[in-house]
Amino acid sequence: MPRTVLADTRDSNDSFPPDGKRHSSSRGAQQMGSIRSGISSAGARLAVAVALASAGCAAPRTMTQAEWESSLVRDFSGVSRDQVLAAARRVFELADPADFRIVPTEDGILATRKWSWFLLIAATQGTDTWNLTAKDIGGVVRARVHVSVLTSDTNAAVIGAAAIPVTSTTQTPTVDGTAIYDVFWARVEYLLGQRDDWMSCVESNARQKSRLVWGFNEPLCDSLTTVDAPAPDRILGLEHR
């Protein structure tokens, strides 16, 4: 279960950013319309953290072993390991070309993205980390992805006549929920010519709402700091299905 730690971060120079805006680490301020539309996405991260931290009476939903395997792992035939890794890299670059940092590893790639958002009396910042491995197994490429999220939330706690910044930090070692893996693999499959349609964030959100998937999809579909890109050019054609 993610660990939540409360810390008093009071300082005479502490203040909350006055603009009430959210941005990823190297992106400029967003338009106000985008801010309003994305507050629910940003809040979803906080809501998950709060639910996990306060679930003393009722345990939060967790994936079954079968859901873990079906969500984190995909087998690809008719494509190479390098093509699978290239498709995954393209998914990250399309979601946030400015802020994803992607480096090769011995077994695949490691992609990290720092993001932040600010409201008048609250701020959240965090880092999403994707660890993707891909191995050739008997003519099939088996890919496995782990998504972890580190989130730090700062809110103003009123103590007497003073507003004191209080920060809580939540570490999610591997995101528990099928929604983020659903949209990630759908996009990889599209780029590899193994799926007809590109899954947009609008479609991913609709699948959440209809309960076809559950959990949060913000690491790819946070409407304030990611891009809901239209269908891109494929890496491979549909004949590779």
The structure class reads alpha+beta
> How are helices and strands ordered from N to C?
EEHHEHEEEEEHHH
Number of helices: 6
Percent of residues in β-strands: 25-35%
Radius of gyration: 19 Å
Shape: elongated
Helix content: 25-40%
Low-confidence spans:
1-43, 46-58
- Number of DSSP strand runs: 8
How would you describe this structure to a colleague?
The protein is α+β, with helices and mostly antiparallel strands and 241 residues long. The chain has one domain. 29% of the residues lie in helices and 32% in strands. The chain contains 6 helices and 8 strands; from the N terminus they run E-E-H-H-E-H-E-E-E-E-E-H-H-H. Strands 1, 2, 3, 4, 5, 6, 7 and 8 form an 8-stranded antiparallel beta sheet that branches. A hairpin with a 3-residue loop joins strand 4 and strand 5. The radius of gyration is 19 Å and the shape is elongated. The N terminus is likely disordered.
Describe the SSE topology.
Blueprint: E1 3-8, E2 22-24, H1 32-53, H2 65-72, E3 73-77, H3 81-95, E4 100-104, E5 108-118, E6 122-137, E7 140-159, E8 162-172, H4 179-191, H5 201-209, H6 218-221
Antiparallel strand pairs: 1-8, 2-5, 3-7, 4-5, 5-6, 6-7, 7-8
Region (Disordered): 1-34
